[in-house]
Amino acid sequence: MAIRNPTPRSPRKLLNFGRPSISLTEQHQATIRFHVHSLLAVRIYPTTSKILVRILAENADFPIQSTTSLWRWMKKLGFAYKRTSKVVVPLNTPTFMAARARYFAAIDELRASGAKIFWHDETWANKNEETRFVWTNRTTGVGRMRSSIRKRLAISALLGESGFYKQTIDMFKCDENHTMDSRHFLTWIDQAASLLREEFGNIISKLTGEALHAECD
Questions:
Q1: How far apart are CA 70 and CA 33, in angstroms?
Q2: How far separated are the first and last CA of the chain, in Å rounded?
Q3: Is residue 197 predicted with pLDDT exceeding 70?
């Protein structure tokens, strides 16, 4: 009698040992949306961890118990995870309109008191790239002079209602990824503000929202 060699076979998959999919009711989905918008209403960035903490504080038995599951469901609900610098702010939202009204009311009050208002602005110019239009290779982009090893010229200044105030213009060399460090900025803004106070007396400087300006707040 011939002896057959055994042939290995994979066992039948009788049971699914993975985690069961999480099912959310309409009320559960509305809860997620509510906490996202409630965080935005108080000007807090809605990260998954912050949203989950709020949800579980309200309902410890909520079907979602991890940030990973919450992430997946937020994608299903139409939310998109983007860099804060890329998020588009609707100009007609009640929150933005209210903030804009407060801002212009404060500006009007300062003008009525006789204060001179100056805004801060900064920009960069790349070495050998003063022209706005150049011929380039369509596929490789070769022909443009920008390079990571080239120097950039940082330009920072205060401007009023009549334009840039020349005495406050500050220019210095920097690399491709440079943003003015806070120490340099504080030294410059202190000197510029002192110069303006000597000439105009009571002044107000409006700074941009960069993180490096936080020390001036």
A1: 11
A2: 94
A3: yes
Tens-place pLDDT, residues 29-50: 989 988 888 887 777 778 889 9
Q: Say how far apart CA 91 and CA 99 lie, in whole Å.
A: 11
Q: Say if residues 155 and 172 touch (Cβ distance below 8 Å).
A: no
- The two structure tokens encoding residue 16: 């699914």
Residue 204 dihedral angles phi and psi, to the nearest 5°: -130, 130
Query: pTM (2 decimals)?
Result: 0.41
Continuous segment of H or E residues that includes residue 106: helix 94-112
Q: What angle do CA 94, 100, 105 make, to 5 degrees?
A: 125
pLDDT tens digits, 148-185: 455 677 788 888 877 888 888 888 776 555 555 667 77
- Residue 176 to residue 152: CA distance in whole angstroms: 6
Q: CA–CA separation, 96 vs 94, rounded Å?
A: 6
Phi-psi region of 163 (alpha: psi -120 to 50; beta: other; left: phi over 0): left
C-alpha distances in angstroms, 146 versus 16, 37, 175?
56, 41, 11
According to DSSP, the β-strands at 203-206 and 116-126 are parallel
- Judged by average pLDDT, the poorest of 50-59, 76-85, 207-216 is 207-216
| Sole residue written with tokens 């490096």 | 212
Are 23 and 73 a contacting pair, CB within 8 Å? no
Hey, what are 39's tokens?
């965080």
